[in-house]
Amino acid sequence: MAHEPLHTMGQQHGRRSWAEPWKIKMVEPLAVTTRGQREAALAEAGYNTFLLHSEDVYIDLLTDSGTSAMSDRQWAGMMLGDEAYAGSRNFYHLEAAVQRFYGYRHLVPTHQGRGAEHLISRALIRPGDHVPGNMYFTTTRLHQELAGATFHDVIVDEAHDPESLHPFKGNVDLAKLERLVAEVGAEKVPYVSLAGTVNMAGGQPVSMANVRELRAWCEPRGIRVLLDATRMVENALFIQEREEGYAGRTIAEILLEFCSYTDGAWMSSKKDHLVNIGGWLAVNDREVFEELRNLVVVYEGLHTYGGMAGRDMEALAIGIEEAVRDDHVRSRVGQVRYLGELLEEWSIPIVRPIGGHAIFLDARRFYPHLAQDLFPAQTLAAELYLDSGIRSMERGIVSAGRDPVTGDHKRPKLELTRLTIPRRVYTQAHMDVVAESVKACFDARAAAKGLRMVHEPKYLRFFQARFEPIA
Description:
By secondary structure, this protein is α/β, with parallel strands linked by helices. The protein has helices at about 35-45, 70-80, 90-100, 115-125, 140-145, 175-185, 210-220, 230-240, 250-260, 285-300, 310-325, 325-345, 365, 375-390, 395-400, 430-445; strands at about 60, 105-110, 130-135, 150-155, 190-195, 225-230, 265-270, 280-285, 360, 390, 395, 415-420, 450-455, 465-470. A five-stranded mixed β-sheet has the order 2-8-7-6-5, sandwiched between helices.
């Protein structure tokens, strides 16, 4: 379905502007720095935007994880925290919210999504197993590998093409999945790792038809389908807009149906659920739940808090309800589209269709003269910060890491720089500033020389690696 640009919507019938379904109650001052200050800060950070001090950042688009603005209801809920070590009333509010909106029977709270990834990997994976998924995510794949599994990408080919306009580039390619299972055996596949609005593909959604077909294929073979539900409300909006039969359904109804085709989910609530910390793991199988509930006590905290304070669980329970409101989701994705459409007007290369949580700049086409080993996406993140103080992040060869067998870089087809939009934080004027800064970098693209890596951590190197400019 085609979408009218939000900044031109209604102009042919007289001006009718679009606006966010909330008003601002409190503000936080932003730092404005000079070019010289930014040069010094970036050099100290080793040209890695993760290592910048937040006080040196103007508009922070590093991530949408834990960076959203909470509502007045959520802040009020924080005052109702029951900080009992065991049996906190806030846990039961959270459990009821997950059961109502996601439909799973059993809930295990965790401090954030990474804790949930660790628990499910440890509970279900055995050394020598194989986990297929619709493109990797960094921490998810690492936890699966640390548990002894090999990850296999079974996403549709269109996901690796930033210019493809396929409406559901997050879909699983069932033919790829079938070939893998035929090769390794269903008994060696503990679950399919399915992510909604696939992050590494540019925030691209999975269709309802695809998850339904996936469930029908996996169930007779005894293979679970487990969902990374981190950004599933955005996925539900794309289904509502693009898939036949869903235009009249609410986000909440679509979310509940999608989850019904899966056996469980893990959640980084720092995204969709509008909180600064928190996560959960939910399953339908009682035996799996008992194993997870036992493990959470070892690694996270008691099974009724899982690493969260009672006040955090209350804010999270309220955030779950706010996150599925149709006007909220349209506003959230609408702001991302607004930025993307500005960049498209200037012919700046981005992943298309525009995704749900971020704009992904295509660094390969941005810097066609830079080899991938010169880290073009990392270079672009550095140049954008130098130009305006905007912080973005790399999603390319640095994030992909190294092949554990050869020791060489993994070289993904997508070399992207992510501009991630926090929820309910920035205005459209901020998006205008971001777009103009990207254009300034694009106009100066021929001068970029690339970077070399001078420090490389063993795990998840993109968080702490250090670089220096090519002379």
